Amino acid sequence: MSTAFSAVFWHNSPLIFQGSNSPLTTHTFLKVESLAYERNDAVVFQPVDFALKAGEALQLMGVNGSGKTTLFQLLTGIYTPSCGSISYCGQLVNNCRYEYLSDVLYIGHQSGVKAALTAEENLRWMSPKNTTSEKISAALGAVGLGEYSQIICANLSAGQKRRVALARLMTGQAKLWFLDEPLTSLDKQGVELIEHCMNQHLDQGGAILFSSHQDLAQVKTRNYRLEPFEEVA
Q1: Can you tell me the distance from the alpha carbon of 153 to that of 149, in angstroms, rounded to the nearest whole number?
Q2: N or C: which end of the chain has fewer CB within 10 A?
Q3: CATH of the domain spanning 27-225
Q4: Is the distance from CB of 73 to CB of 145 less than 8 angstroms?
Q5: For the CA atoms of 59, 60, 62, 65, what is the dihedral angle to 10 degrees?
Q6: β-sheet with 207-211: strand ranges across
Q7: Is residue 140 classed as helix, strand or coil in its secondary structure?
Q8: What is the widest separation between alpha-carbon atoms in the chain?
């Protein structure tokens, strides 16, 4: 059975922002200001400041242990910031938490699939409720798992489990993607597929914040480096 990635892709509906006369590419999805976090009374990184607009991909840089995953967890509400603010479409996230989180797709550095479920069951569980069976099947086929859809994930390799998680990029409806090390365990074909998905999302007005220790050859990105916190003597 072949595990090669399929060249099957599709386009979602264009993203439309109501109540704005600005071009789509100037719409600011996410604005982070002076964001900081303390763990065990120690500040994890220097205050974070950046903005992410529609059509933009921002690559989060930093050495291992610099706090990249912690930042994603702050942005998704898993952790609470010690100070600073997060704004979504011009509103503080605390004032529009439901709308914000409904518009976020977060894939962590761990695959997060349930070992006892099949690839199809996992993807259905991780996808919006209105996702059709046809779209689930197409997404698994696109990531090379069409013939493995009924195999429980306990019997899949690490790379295959990663593909199950990344198939969410093709079934989700969120405009804001947070991807923590999305290229982990992927071969060259897998990386090319993710680059295609990212470019398609950006072309449709979405925005992406991602971390990776390797550059994406086919995706235009900006970089933001997390710096460790240093106390002033």
Answers
A1: 9
A2: C
A3: 3.40.50.300
A4: no
A5: -140
A6: 104-107, 176-180, 207-211, 57-61, 222-225
A7: helix
A8: 62
166, amino acid identity: L
Q: Evaluate the CA torsion angle 86, 205, 182, 138 in order and state its sign.
A: positive
Sheet containing 28-36: give its strands across. 48-53, 28-36, 83-88, 91-92
**Is residue 144 packed enough to be buried (19+ CB in 10 Å), middle (13-18) or exposed (0-12)?**
buried
Q: How many other C-beta atoms can be found within 10 angstroms of the C-beta atom of residue 117? A: 16
Say whether pLDDT at 4 is over 90: no
Q: Which two tokens stand for residue 142?
A: 């696109």
Lowest mean pLDDT among 39-43, 101-105, 138-142, 148-152: 39-43
Residues 11-48 pLDDT 10s: 333 333 333 333 344 589 999 999 999 988 888 988 99
Amino acid 129 reads: K
Query: Is a pLDDT exceeding 70 seen at residue 150?
Result: yes
Write the DSSP symbol of residue 13: P
Domain ranges within the chain, ordered by starting residue: 27-225
Name residue, tokens 């919006």: 128
